[in-house]
Amino acid sequence: MDDRFGRVFRGVKRIVDLLVDPLRKNPNAAKFDLSIPEAHTTTVDGDTGWASRPPAWVTCPQCGSDIHQRDVHETIDCPRCVATYAPNEFAELELKHLQCPVCGNVMEDGIRHPNVFTMPEWATCHRCHYHWEFDHLF
């Protein structure tokens, strides 16, 4: 009877281990995530929303120099000429690139709804895998 109980216990333990093993923390992983493999992305860290938009580099329409806007609420002030732009004028300026807030790398960005938005809706850093998404309702 004890031997049969031991076999059943080992069988149940093996089944539980098979089910739980994928959920155990990988010591090499930077972040623990329970998302399913089919929907899992390669990103490690990220933010959502316009207020969390990564720092941006835009072109000054008056003199053509690069302007760095560190924060989405910061005035866009050209370091070369006297041009200044309010933060809400960002979409009217030519975007050179977004800069990863984690490692400083140039991010790949894109627009999913070009008939609705003229500014980036997502950006991904291929070096550190940081990802930013513009948050909208559709």
From TrEMBL:
Descriptive protein name? Uncharacterized protein
Q: Which organism is it from?
A: Halomarina rubra
